[in-house]
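Hi F.,

I've been meaning to write this up properly since the lab meeting, where we talked about keeping a consistent format for the predictions we share between groups. The idea is simple: the sequence comes first, exactly as it goes in, then the structure tokens exactly as they come out, then a line or two of notes. No screenshots and no reformatting. I'm using this chain as the first example so we have something concrete to point to.
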Amino acid sequence: MGAGRHLNVTVWNEFVHERREPSVKKIYPDGMHAPIVDGLRRELGNDVTVRVATLDEPEHGLTDDVLADTDVMTWWGHAAHDQVSDGVVEKVHARVLNGMGIVVLHSGHYSKIFKRLMGTTCSLIWRSDPGGEREQIWTVNPAHPIAAGVPQPIVIPHQEMYGEYFDIPPPDELVFISSFEGGEVFRGGCCFTRGAGRVFYFSPGDQEYPVYHQVEVQRVIANAVAWCGGVTQPNDSTAGREGNRPRDWYL
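Output, unedited:
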């Protein structure tokens, strides 16, 4: 990262699918948070300290002390949005307004905290066919720090389709759009500022596919954490974005 500031990151994961669905547990035996944590530690090294918090912990693992010690949070939820305490959501919202960054992932678009931050329904169209479909994530803002070192495009061989219309406010900056086999497109990499805090939404990551094991996806999340924490350097290079060959075991 090289900006001289250490980041304390809380990776929040609902952690429901992995424990009740064998197909998901096979892909993420230690939870979806595990490869996200691994990617953050690999990409950001000694400049980051990472903790994990989950839904079933007291206060969902987001106590006042944890929130006060969090510079950036990542958020993945899906099956239990309604089980997240309104009081915890209000505390997270207040921390973002006061300067904490938050990276919202995939179905977290419909989480209470993201809807609270956006002020809209955050609804979208989706399709989940057996086996998924190919997604290509195109960088539309190559100079943005979140796009640093990211191939053009990122190819996800199997994924759930998210499509427009995505009911969010116009992003302050749009970094990525996705295209799908069915012809849909989606604003899947969006930057916002709320109060003193930075927000990034990144769409890939359905629980039925090994998306968070892809190094390219981990790099985007790490870049987003650094950006939300205000420690990124300018990104003036478009080198290394000439293509993407997914690992054979993703196919």
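Notes:
The domain at 7-250 is CATH 3.40.50.880 (Rossmann fold).
The longest strand covers residues 185-194.

If this format works for you, I'll send the rest the same way.

G.
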